[in-house]
Design brief:
Helix content is 67%, strand content 3%. By secondary structure, it is an all-alpha fold. The longest helix has 32 residues. It starts with a strand and ends with a helix.
Length: 280
């Protein structure tokens, strides 16, 4: 659609949506950029788990002798949110800065990445998380097992349904923020207001941790949960582990649907396109 203006024609739509990613893209497997992105996701998730789990273990070891010592819940939340801000900023131009299988899954459902890339990212993220927690155990072996290994567990007094709901809603907040912060329409419309995309994403992680650490220890990232569970490898870490996969994946799917089909009116556009074709 074009409008005639005083200085000629111009497009009413001042942004361009990228084309949907193909379901399978074998050509990606022959590109160095694909493997570079996998390395970036692996290293970013490794660093994320190393810093955050080390913060959790350090806090618990200090608080064991003095309840007022350690960084506290607020400090742990800052560690998770701050590391996401840093790592998304560093890797966004290389891999997209997912660092979370739930984020990757949401972007796949929205056709932002191919199935090939989504599966490869999830594997790289999970392996990076395992290696990151492995480093924590190697450097803090005396404290690691004593203070729970940073594993996600359902807190006493909370039902499985409550834990699952906390993970679904927490991940929805995160993935919804990812979609909003990287929306090309928002970038074009608000170009006069510079917004650093990693900042709201990091703040979303921070806020969700404040709310859900007392319930589940805050998963919202299956790689974070599987990494800690594999290295800690105690029965308690595996008892409700499915929550930390099912919850984030459901939350990511709801966020993808809400953003793409309601806020961006994808369903209305698709219906309108179908109707126009039936009248041709």
């Amino acid at each position: 659609m074009e409008k005639e203006g005083e200085h000629g024609s111009f497009h009413a739509k001042d942004y361009v949506d990228p084309p949907p990613a193909p379901l399978f893209d074998a050509a990606e497997l022959r590109k160095w950029s694909f493997y570079r992105a996998l390395i970036a996701e692996f290293i970013a998730t490794l660093l994320f788990l190393y810093i955050t789990v080390l913060t959790v273990i350090g806090h618990k070891s200090q608080a064991a002798s003095d309840a007022c010592a350690g960084v506290g819940l607020l400090g742990i939340a800052w560690a998770f949110g701050g590391m996401i801000f840093i790592l998304v900023y560093c890797t966004a131009g290389i891999s997209g800065g997912h660092i979370n299988p739930a984020v990757t899954f949401g972007l796949f459902l929205a056709r932002k990445v191919s199935l090939t890339r989504a599966i490869a990212y999830m594997v790289a993220q999970s392996l990076g998380a395992i290696c990151g927690v492995g480093l924590v155990k190697a450097f803090q072996s005396s404290y690691y097992n004593r203070y729970g290994g940073g594993a996600n567990t359902l807190a006493d007094g909370y039902s499985t349904g409550t834990g699952l709901g906390a993970e679904i809603i927490g991940t929805f907040v995160l993935v919804y923020t990812v979609f909003s912060a990287t929306d090309p329409k928002r970038k074009a419309r608000d170009s006069h207001v510079p917004v650093l995309a990693p900042l709201p994403i990091g703040f979303a992680v921070f806020m969700v941790h404040l709310a859900t650490i007392p319930i589940t220890g805050t998963g919202i990232n299956p790689a974070r949960s599987i990494g800690a569970a594999v290295i800690y490898n105690k029965e308690k870490a595996w008892d409700d582990h499915w929550i930390f996969w099912a919850g984030p994946m459901i939350g990511a799917a709801i966020a993808a649907f809400y953003h793409q089909f309601i806020l961006r009116a994808g369903a209305v556009k698709a219906l309108g396109s179908f109707r126009s074709q039936t009248h041709v």
